[in-house]
Predict the structure.
Amino acid sequence: GYTEEEQVRLGHTFREALGNAAEHGNKNDPERTIHVNYLRSGDRMSVVVTDEGKGFDTKAFLARAEEVSALEH
């Protein structure tokens, strides 16, 4: 039930999430696993991509994002 444009956007977003999980989370270690869980109900879809990385401090990341403009980099 998604338009072609929506399908393309979902595909790009999903590939970006998988790429980030592999590169940044799992450090491109082929022994580590990436888990994908999804739920589709009516006109909504939720996708959760989980890697085996140690994670990062989201509070520090968001605080820094408020201090620095993305346009400055």
The two ends are 39 Å apart (CA to CA). The chain is about 45% helix and 20% strand. Residues 39 and 46 are 5 Å apart (CA to CA).
